[in-house]
Amino acid sequence: MTRKEVRFHYDREADVLYLSVGKPQKAKSVETGDDFVLRLHPKTAEVVGLTIIDFSKHFPQLDPTHIKLPAEGSFDPAKILEQILTPT
Description:
- This protein has one domain (6-85).
- The chain is built from 2 helices and 5 strands, in the order βββββαα.
- The protein has helices spanning 55-58, 77-85, and strands spanning 6-11, 16-21, 28-33, 36-40, 47-53.
């Protein structure tokens, strides 16, 4: 699996965290649950991003202004999708 840079931007006023794998790009948006939007490449269906609305409501223990993501990383998109779609 090729490692890709994970980028993020937090909009404090809107309380939205935008994550993208590589440079942000056009994508199909799929709502995976309340306040979670998975972004998929329109041709390959590869995960290219994730948007979390009301971030502080879902992750009150985290301060998104101080999140430090690795410059490079890897993850299994299928596992992420499974976790998001599995009711708790």
